[in-house]
Design brief:
The chain is an all-alpha fold. It has a domain of about 110 residues: Up-down Bundle (Four Helix Bundle (Hemerythrin (Met), subunit A)). The protein is about 80% helix and about 0% strand. The chain starts with 12 loop residues before the first helix and ends with a helix. The mean pLDDT is about 85.
Length: about 170
Amino acid sequence: MVDPFAAPLPDPTPQLQALRAALTRLAGSTLPAPARMALAEAQMALSALESLYSGAVDRSVFDALMAMAGPEVAPELVAQMAADLRAVRLALAAALDGANWAGIRAQTHVLVALAGSAGARGLEQASQALNLAAHEADAIRVRALGPGILAGLDGLIRFVEAADSGRAAGK
């Protein structure tokens, strides 16, 4: 008899990506307030699911970035990325607290680039959703998405700082 719990689970990444794309398209449409709230909740739940599978960071993307940088530049790149992420974290938290739409847009713009280049695809996509919500001054979606994005950002900072420590120890 085959133990159904012993078999590895199939990779849900294609389905998660399809769901993310559908939610992103939906976020671009005009929705009544209850639907915007439901959309934000679905985006948060999807971000949580994405972080459960393959970790929050696709290590192969991060490693490819380090390989492109080369051994001389990689430590500096990782240290700068960690500093930039910490700066975004502080500024984004302040912008979220003050409902500063321009600040949220500016910080999520930077975060999309940093998360994408590090391989944090879920955080990148959630940041795009938050950026869109800030462009629309959609306080409901911003309040719903903000905490999850800050938590994801904290995880990415820990990942990059660990990579920075690992590279420093390897010198």
